[in-house]
Amino acid sequence: MLTKRIIACMDVRDGQVVKGVQFQQLRHAGDPGELARRYNVEGIDEVVVLDITATLESRQALARTINAVARQIFLPLTVGGGIRSEDDAAAAVDAGADKVSLNTAALNNPELITTLAGRYGSQAVIVAIDAKRRGDGFAVYVRSGTSDAARDAVEWAREAESRGAGEILLTSMDRDGTRSGFDCEMTAAVANAVNIPVIASGGAGGLDHFAEVFTRGHADAALAASIFHYADTSVSELKRFLRERQIPVRL
Predict the structure, then answer these.
(1) What gap in Å lies between CA 242 and CA 73, rounded to an integer?
(2) Catalytic residue among 45, 51, 98, 130, which?
(3) Catalytic annotation on 31?
(4) Within a domain: residue 44?
(5) Is 251 inside any structural domain?
(6) Is residue 20 domain-resident?
(7) Which of 54, 69, 44, 155 is nearest to 107 (CA)?
């Protein structure tokens, strides 16, 4: 079994980390640079910075925030939010990002996935999918979860892979911020449909939730925000818990 990754996500608005419930009711969660410094010490595997209002406000992800985080960590940094073009991606990489995450722009212009994969390599291109349950399927939403994309998450993940995406960041909007556990059924549906890593996001609230999404959800990585931001769970404690259950994680 391949090593599983634990990823900390920082949703950034106006230069500060925020966290909400189901993409709403945002509250302050800390300074990006300070949190990044703490995660680097605690042993997180990767950090994701998402400028959650960049797409809605038609602006690039804040280079200053990216740079502040990049200076504090010595591990992979993914940046998303407002990356709509090759130039936007280049600005994020120049500011310190190792990977870029595309969401709305990828659906509007799928060729952008292929272009960026050709320039930086597939390993540097993540396609983020925000989805809600709908009947027996999973509906994709865009523009920070405000607009129905009229696409199925499994179908879109397959297409993203075929166009050059190196990973899928799959967020359950139903579970986001609820701490009720990852949507393992949705995660497994996407993970079983593609041959690239799937990062599970939305709903982490306890140690068992991570073990469950790695086993029942077939996730390659699990991303969380609030339980790490507010120090409810330490990274070292989580990794120890997973190792005790024979789930391989990085030391």
Answers:
(1) 23
(2) 130
(3) no
(4) yes
(5) no
(6) yes
(7) 155
Would residue 250 count as lying in a domain?
no
One-letter amino acid at 96 equals: G
Comparing CA positions, the residue from 100, 79, 177, 175 lying closest to residue 131 is 175
Q: Nearest to residue 197, comparing CAs of 219, 222, 223? A: 219
For the chain, the domain total comes to 1
Q: What is the CATH number of the domain that holds 43?
A: 3.20.20.70
* 86: region left, alpha or beta (phi > 0 left; psi from -120 to 50 alpha): alpha
Q: What gap in Å lies between CA 198 and CA 105, rounded to an integer?
A: 19
- Rounded to 10 deg, the angle between the 111-120 and 86-95 helix axes is 40
> Is 152 assigned a catalytic role?
no
pLDDT band, residue 82 (cuts 50/70/90): confident
Reduce the DSSP state of residue 102 to 3 states and report it: strand
In this prediction the pTM is 0.91
Cβ 22 vs Cβ 177: under 8 Å: yes
Q: What is the pLDDT of residues 156-213, one digit of tens each?
A: 999 999 999 999 999 999 998 889 999 999 999 999 999 999 999 999 999 999 999 9
Contact 219, 192 (CB under 8 A): no
